Amino acid sequence: MYRSWSRICTGVKRRRKVIQTQVSRIQGMVEVFSASTSGSLRIDRLDFSYFSTPVLRSLSCQFGSSRTVLLGPNGAGKSTLFGVLSGALAARSGAVLLPGADSPTSRRELRSRVGIMPQSIAPVPGLTVAEQVAYAGWLAGLSARRAARRAGDALEQVDLAGKADAKAGRLSGGQLRRVGLAQAIVAEPEVLLLDEPTAGLDPAQRLRFRSVLRSIPGDRVTIVSTHQIDDISELYDVVAVIEAGQMRFTGTPQEFLGLAGPGPGQAERAYLSLLRSEEIAL
């Protein structure tokens, strides 16, 4: 009887030691995860539908303080994701946590702490470039005086200070895109979203815009949605691919390109290898 009880006690002690070791490992993993995500934009199981059509499907991912390019076919959910992240759209379920947040961020907070450059930039009739940018700052929660001051700084950053007093409606397409970028950064957001920023620009205008983008400090979460994948290694730190409302890939440009063998069209081949849609074909 004593021997049986002794064996049981010894077994319990060993089991307890194993459990304690496992708990310590789990705690360590949690601490590492918390430390690594504290400065990240976190997206947790987002669902969004337009009427009965699902667009985002339990989407979970995170973006650190870096420049991320978001790739995906038309209808993949890129613009919808940006709408939810900026507070313009309400997800059916799930949560968005801004850098440093321990609980889900409200739509009101998202609208003031996330800057977005939409696909279409419309000049406001009667306003100068500086006034249009300042107005965007005021909408984001800045006082009128601070918005006016920050508008000047933002226009300097996008190389449009010389157009501050011009009417926005008289600018070229490339200049108007830079006004949109100034509007997105005027309130110094923690997260910057650029939706197809070079759409409709000619090659010279695209090069100019890329140069401006490089000049913007990279100490915030910046996500750029685009179909232009020929310059991912030069501009971006992270590549993310979304399709059918789900994230198919996140990794470095080198990891992304490694999905395809070397040779012509490497980026395009890597991108197509990730898509599951039957409509995508070479």
Automatic annotation (TrEMBL):
UniProt keyword annotation of ATP-binding present: yes
Alphabetical list of InterPro entries matching this protein: AAA+_ATPase, ABC_transporter-like_ATP-bd, ABC_transporter-like_CS, P-loop_NTPase
Pfam family, one: ABC_tran
GO molecular function annotation: ATP binding; ATP hydrolysis activity
Keywords recorded for this protein, A-Z: ATP-binding, Hydrolase, Nucleotide-binding
Enzyme Commission number(s) from the entry: 3.6.3.-
Domain ABC transporter: 41-269
Name recorded for this polypeptide: Cobalt import ATP-binding protein CbiO
Entry-linked SUPFAM superfamilies: P-loop containing nucleoside triphosphate hydrolases
Enzyme class: hydrolase
Organism, as annotated: Acidipropionibacterium jensenii
Keyword Nucleotide-binding listed: yes
